[in-house]
């Protein structure tokens, strides 16, 4: 458990570096290590109805992503010009944080020590290394491309439909303020939905954030996101403890940062982005990837219709060497 993790010099309690090391080799997968063959085989038992739901919001769904990030640039190339034949290619460029994504364990560091998972001191040069023969993936950095070496992510997904729960129970809830979801809320919703957490689960939480932006004009989207106050899971050390102790393989949601922004200190005073509690614990200390901006409306409808909130989850990030973030290409299979 969190309180029993070995002390790591200079780091706070809850630092899981070395926990998943094997045969003298430094681990780069973090809590994906909970996904053993037995856990994956058990997850396949969730596949019963033959129904598949995509959890991926379109890249470019937000016209001007927050924090000054670059949105989608999609260029279609006419092959009549390039190859003198009829047809098309296309070129895309975007910040991987602009729509549905996984945050790798290199994305957000433990701020006081500026270290990523395993104490890695990542720098831009290492992440974009080019050798004489082209790109050289760095095998020591916990980036998302390495998920391919372990066959992507296959797990049992468990869905916490907080938005539905709030709507049905008259709870005042606005995704575009810093309204928060506490551990007590998560447990209440899980109980209502009949969800039982198991080690190796990927927990997926719906707040209504992405669907409220879907189809809105760029101006309305900018207005809704403009305050940089956003809903999410309450960022405290006790919350982090709960997530670690549940042995989740990863966490995801439709929120822009998964956790509430801004985080607040013990006196309720707002902290800067460098004070994000769960980003530091999950990514840098635990090695637990965070999924953000997933599109969960169809998942909500399917779970309600089928009357169950667990499923087989698959995800295969882009195989871009050195990728700090990536669209998840995530599917829920029932
Ligand atoms: C930050 O990068 C601060 O947050 P996110 O991972 O939510 O984009």
UniProtKB/TrEMBL annotation:
A Pfam cross-reference name: Cyclase
Any GO BP: L-tryptophan catabolic process to kynurenine
Domain of life: Eukaryota
Entry's Gene Ontology molecular function annotations: arylformamidase activity
InterPro entries, per the entry: KFase/CYL, KFase_sf
Family, similarity comment: Belongs to the Cyclase 1 superfamily.
Protein name as annotated: Cyclase
Source species of the chain: Acrodontium crateriforme
Upper lineage: Eukaryota, Fungi, Dikarya, Ascomycota, Pezizomycotina
């Amino acid at each position: 458990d969190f309180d029993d993790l070995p002390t790591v010099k200079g780091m706070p309690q809850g630092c899981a570096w070395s926990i998943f090391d094997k045969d003298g080799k430094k681990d780069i997968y973090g809590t994906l290590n909970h996904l053993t063959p037995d856990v994956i085989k058990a997850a396949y038992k969730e596949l019963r109805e033959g129904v598949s739901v995509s959890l991926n919001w379109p890249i470019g769904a937000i016209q001007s992503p927050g924090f000054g990030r670059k949105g989608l640039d999609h260029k279609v190339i006419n092959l009549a010009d390039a190859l003198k034949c009829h047809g098309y290619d296309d070129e895309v460029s975007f910040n991987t944080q602009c729509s549905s994504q996984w945050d790798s364990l290199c994305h957000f560091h433990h701020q006081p020590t500026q270290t990523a998972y395993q104490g890695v001191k990542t720098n831009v040069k290492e992440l974009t290394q080019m050798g004489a023969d082209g790109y050289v993936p760095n095998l020591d950095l916990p980036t998302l491309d390495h998920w391919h070496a372990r066959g992507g992510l296959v797990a049992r997904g468990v869905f916490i439909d907080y938005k539905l729960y709030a709507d049905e129970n008259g709870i005042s809830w606005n995704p575009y303020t810093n309204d928060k979801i506490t551990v007590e809320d998560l447990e209440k919703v899980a109980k209502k939905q009949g969800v039982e957490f198991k080690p190796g689960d990927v927990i997926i939480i719906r707040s209504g954030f992405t669907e409220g932006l879907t189809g809105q004009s760029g101006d309305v989207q900018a207005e809704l996101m403009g305050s940089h106050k956003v809903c999410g899971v309450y960022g405290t050390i006790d919350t982090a403890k709960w997530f670690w102790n549940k042995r989740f393989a990863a966490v995801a949601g439709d929120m822009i940062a998964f956790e509430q922004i801004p985080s607040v200190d013990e006196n309720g005073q707002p902290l800067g982005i460098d004070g994000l509690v769960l980003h530091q614990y999950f990514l840098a200390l635990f090695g637990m990837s965070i999924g953000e901006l997933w599109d969960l409306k169809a998942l909500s409808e399917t779970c309600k219709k089928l009357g169950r909130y667990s499923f087989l989850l698959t995800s295969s990030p882009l195989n871009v060497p050195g990728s700090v973030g990536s669209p998840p290409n995530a599917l829920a299979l029932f």
